[in-house]
Amino acid sequence: MLAILVIGLLALLVVFLENTGIAILTPKGIIAEKQKQLLLDATWLMLIVVVPALFLTFFYAWKYRESNEKATHAPDWDQNIVIEAIWWGVPFIIVIVLSIFTWRACYDLDPFLPIHSESKPVKIQVVALQWRWLFIYPEEKIATINWVQFPEKRPLDFEITADAPMNSFWIPQLGGQIYAMAGMRSELHLMADETGTFRGSSANLSGSGFSNMWFTAVSSSEHDFESWASLIRSKAQPLNMDNYHKIAEPNDETRPVYYSLEDERLFEKILMQYMPKERL
Amino acid sequence: MFGRLTLDAFKHDAIEMGANYSMIFAVLLAIGLLTYFRVWGRFWREWVISLDPKKIGLMYIFVSFIMLFKGLFDAGMMRAQQAFSVGASHGYLTSDHFQQVFTAHGTTMIFFVGMGILFGVVNLIMPMQIGARDVAFPFLNSLSFYLFVVGAFLVNLSLLVGEFSAAGWVAYPPLSGLQYNPGVGVDYWIWSVQIAGIGSLLSGVNFLVTIFKMRCPGMTLMRMPVFVWASLGAMILVVFAFPILTATLAMLTLDRLIGTHFFTLTGGGNPMMYINLIWAWGHPEVYILILPAFGIFSEVVPIFSRKRLFGYASMVWAIIAIVFLSFVVWLHHFFTMGAGASVNAFFGIMTMLIAVPTGAKIFNWLFTMYEGRVRFETPLLWFLGFVIVFVTGGMTGVMMSIAPVDFQVHNSLYLIAHFHSMVIGGVVFGFFCGFSYWFPKFSGFKLDERLGRYAYYCWMLGFMLAFMPLYVLGLMGATRRLDHYDAETGWQPLFLVALSGIVFIIIGMSFQILQLLVSFRDRKKNADLTGDAWNGRTLEWATPSPPPFYNWPVTPEVYGRDAFWAMKERKTQKPLQYAPIHMPKDTAMGLYIALFAFCVGFGLIWYMFWLAIVGVVGILACLIIRLADHDTTYYVSVKEIEKIEAARLK
To answer: Cβ neighbours of residue B22 under 8 Å, at least 6 residues apart?
Structure first.
């Protein structure tokens, strides 16, 4: 009876996960793919220690239970250098292996490192507002709110700052996050391998509108991206430093808004608001 | 006169009022019961002004239990919101209220549950285990306790007067700065943590000196029980880490109060400095909580395996390694802040290294069971639960120490599942394990075994249901601290499962209350008159249960590890030659100082500066009076000792 219940629940879980999809385990970009691989490799390595530990716990507890009179009882046996060396040594070796992994991965997947590719990168500047995401495309001369679109198979150079409390910029299916901080410029380099629509969000508490701080990331074909950008450029309202201050006011709406970019140096100006005056 | 305190501070929504009424009701009930049974005098003399570490320890545990309920209630509110606040529905809490709830949950659980049970258990057990009669500075001990109570009180008071912080339990600026949070919430957080933190620092100094200076003859460092070693490790961390917290909070206070620019966005301030500082305290803090739990398991496993602890020396070195390493890993809390690859790699590797001594401890416990005689009583069950939860949590922890993996799960619910595995699996299970093990020591009777098992199974099931789905949710991209999400994310079913887990945990805690009541009812039946309820090995079992206030009529002498076991094997009874015992006089001065500290905190939260000045002057006056008083100790006469001992032996 219990077994049927457990199997039923597990089946339900599998169906549910199939339908919903686990973002990090179904990556759509090269960075997320590498990060997923790293996660899985590390898991297998650690299971070398974890499985015996869990197994031995229950095996020993059961085998040496009080009612089992046949088991040997050695109440004063409390030291053995050899076996202690094994459980200090084996995890230590695993940590050394993991360290090499980590060291390489930290350089490989440094968020500031541009992605090698033959195609030209797309430059997207990101500003975390209270509580919306502003995306500025200085080359396409457009800007969007809560919606970021880009062509597939082209590196994406994100430059990230905030005009708000600290946020974290995260598109799970494309790759890991980095903080968005006022007066700071962080970088993130991602690339989508295929077309699709992904959820992105802020991962760091930034005030009362925090839960609404998610956006839609769309990877489209080069052609679709171009026509999308030119449509916005021709039709949308202009954005410059003057009306920027209005959109930077607290607002937790999630719907996308589009602008044609009037001031190419808008991102720098937003950033420089926080520099001490004497240094300018 | 009242600063920024106006009548508006008392206006709340229905949920907050409900909490307030129940708090007020509980206080009135306690006052009523004390009055009805006419025990105010006894309560004052035997508990409030007591400097006996056993009583202070019990009071710590009592307060922590209450705060645990509050924290658990907060957790239930959060998950209830998340389970139903999907798509068009926005749940029953506003964003702001929800954020106050999770800030209060984190603050309560770390500072007023974790630290409370840590100091409670150390107070109760450690002095007895080293053969001492008291701690090094008994008055300081009472002061620490009352500062802790004032901190806890401020958190609860924020429900009634004003509001609590909505900036998360580590309150990162600029969100916690004046610019984005001008209200009293963050100030409540600062002062409750600051006052309790100073108490913790004083306790750390106190216990450190106690362990180094108050051991009985023959109790060399390498003969100390592992629980004492673990406490020593934790106290070294307290002494080094808590000053950082005090200084960081002081700087944040100055930013908010007089407009300095330590952590502001403008004027040359830098919030990243705060994040570094808070974790330079915050990471050791995690080990401050977990080390004593390791100590408890190191006591319990040998007893319930009827075997010596395996690998004593490597247990001790593991603790020392953990103490050292815990100070060089803080940056792993913010790999995503954009430090260079080498910095991230260094802190990642240091973090992984901690897994080595921790893993060695687990294997030492396993080999303590090997060729032992394992008795499946509640304390051992908690240990087994701990191994399952802690080992899986440790594994995900090592995963997150790889910076690029952390980029993907940082601040997601995966992280929440990880650290609750460590804190619930480690600290809370460790405490329950120690509580059921040492309960007969301070009460004189054992806890009901059957209800203890029910509680354990409910907790385990509840934990699995509440936190395993969070690993999956994290991998799905669900971040922490969300009060609302869209239906198409597909997260709701897992949030519902997580909510059901909280229900089982609450059932588990109800069994624990029932267990206390039933055990008290059956106390005659479960009585332990020997003082040695479990065939113990360490010195605390050499005293009667409950021990007299001076612990030992004659200071014990120790000839080896497992001191009491050795005494029992030798069966030599030294003729008892009583001598007058030097003990501290009880005093309420700690309470008075803490009350003035409350005035400082409350005054600065509400900008009632005259009250803060009254508080500072009061504290100084109390200190001068106390320091000028040279008549703080007395001798228990031989006659008195003989009377107490005779009454016991009868």
So the answer is: none
